[in-house]
Specification:
Elements lengths: L2 H32 L5 H27 L4 H7 L1 H8 L12 H9 L5 H28 L10 H12 L12 H81 L1
Helix pairs in contact: 1-2, 2-4, 5-6, 6-7, 6-8
Length: 256
């Protein structure tokens, strides 16, 4: 068995435990961000959960990379997973580990193009907005000049940013907050590009299907015309044969 086959078997067996760990990781992070007034022991527990979970994700990525036959190709095709492992070293970006959930659910969505795109974009956009809101609040809340001080502010900012509206009433003032904003802008452009490409592909497929249907109809009409011509020729041959047979009988009778 090749290393790629082993890697695929490992990914199939480990994806749901890792999803459960990712959800636990994000829940602990979100709880700590949304409720900074929790008791110290509970905040410490939540922090321990986020710290312990990250090495598991790192080990998972390293193992999958080690089992890949073509490692550079694996890195290129799984760059999102790599970012989810590397970027959470920065506290406001730890939330990116939830991309594992979107990646696995994406593989289980309907195979139809419009259904897959609609479900994937809806899921991904919701996760990105939620993650960016938490990360932005975590980065901005402690700054005295911050305009984003509540989760409602962060959620509103994330929605206006990812939709490219950008009212400017809420904006990041810290370096980490601006980094989150930059990533959110890139994510919004990527989602828009995905939707545009999917819609264009759908139109191309519909045009191709229509052209194929027209070709099939033209072929069917041509076949029918050919069959009609063959039937006419057959009838003509029969008529000529009948005439020749009749003439032969007349000649025979005259000779007799």
């Amino acid at each position: 068995m090749t290393k790629d086959a082993l890697r695929r078997r490992y990914e199939e067996a480990s994806q749901w435990p890792l999803i459960a760990l990712a959800v636990l990781f994000v829940a602990a992070y979100a709880w700590g961000v949304l409720r900074p007034d929790l008791p110290d022991w509970l905040l410490t527990t939540l922090h321990v959960v986020t710290v312990v979970a990250w090495p598991v994700f790192l080990a998972d990525y390293a193992l999958r990379l080690a089992l890949a036959d073509h490692r550079w190709q694996f890195v290129r095709h799984n760059w999102i997973d790599g970012l989810a492992v590397v970027l959470p070293l920065l506290r406001p970006l730890r939330i990116l580990s939830l991309v594992r959930v979107a990646r696995v659910i994406d593989r289980r969505l309907t195979t139809s193009l419009h259904g897959r795109v609609a479900a994937y974009v809806t899921l991904t956009a919701s996760l990105v907005v939620f993650m960016a809101s938490l990360a932005e609040l975590d980065a901005e809340r402690g700054d005295p000049d911050a305009t984003i001080t509540t989760f409602g502010d962060a959620l509103w900012w994330a929605l206006t940013t990812i939709t490219t509206v950008g009212y400017g009433d809420r904006y990041p003032v810290t370096g980490e907050g601006r980094l989150v904003a930059g990533l959110l802008m890139v994510a919004g452009i990527a989602l828009l590009g995905t939707v545009t490409a999917a819609v264009a592909s759908w139109f191309v497929r519909r045009v191709a299907d229509a052209a194929r249907a027209e070709d099939d109809a033209a072929d069917a009409a041509a076949d029918e015309a050919l069959r009609a011509e063959l039937r006419a020729l057959t009838e003509e041959v029969r008529r000529l044969r009948a005439e020749l047979t009749g003439q032969g009988r007349v000649e025979l009778s005259e000779r007799g």
